[in-house]
Amino acid sequence: MAIKSMKVLNIMAFHQKELDLQFGDGINILIGENGMGKTTLLKMIYAALQYSIENQTSGKELIHFFSNNLRDFSQMKYPGKEKDTCYYEISDGQHFFKDYLTKKNGIVSEGWKGLNIQSVFIPTTEMLSHSKGFLAMNQKYNMPFDETQIDIIVNASLPETKKVSQSCEIILKEIKQTKETMESAPLDRQEIIVQEDDTFYIVKNDGRKIDFSLEAEGMRKLGLLWKLIRNGLLEKNSVLLWDEPEANLNPELYPLVANILLALQKNGVQIFLATHSYNFAKYLEIRRTEKEQVLIHNLYRNDLGKEIMSVSAYKMEDLEPNHIMMADNQLLDEVYNM
Known about the structure:
Low-confidence stretches: none
Structural class: alpha/beta
Distance between the termini: 51 Å
Helix content: 25-40%
Radius of gyration: 20 Å
Mean pLDDT: 88
Largest sheet: 6 strands, mixed
Number of strands: 14
């Protein structure tokens, strides 16, 4: 099962005309300038996937996935479009979910509730460093975080499964080997992350436990991936949504993270990424073994600068206008002209 399509109208930056996106079953990369709504699209997909879970409580729907501060549906509507139809729709080709933001509880779905699609959203903000007492405080106080930031702590805090699939074992081994290379020493235990008293620690190769906040960002990202896989959350038929995986990541690790994502996709995980990095997106493109593994969706404004448009392709060079390629080419021109 995979998400096949998405439609959006009059939500946040998406107005004038319905945005219609057709997704691939593998890795879907969203690119575009700031303000094109890439993060908003990821959160809409995640909200719909959460709604597919049979026992999901209505209190966790759906507007709070966007911002904990948005209490009024009208705030999500594009200015001047408050009285117009406003919705987003997600479909797997057979079932669909549609959320009308014109009024509260304006949800329409056909066969969607009960699909129980397992999904994980990794936000741009690194959250495990703030885990101590976070979930308890969130239950008691109005915290300035949206549900994606809360859910990643919940997912990382889940107990490890007794066993992961053989294909996932290979990925875990690759992460472990990379950690050993980074520290120039063998890891004397299997765990890369441990959680004690609500606090996450990176396990150093000599057995020392380092507070997650004190570790390098690249190792935190690898550790989080390891934990999500070890907790059984990234198995076949699940969906991973990751907002700017390249953020604060050493470019030397781009190939490794690309390999991990491609391996997860081969294992049956559908993946949605938003990125500003040409190099990171290009690694996914050139390291795939089949063209259909990676589909790139370019978001841009039309000539009038108002309407957000989209175009999709299997190669970065086939997308126009492609602003992350333009920026990369501009830098190369300046280097060659020195």
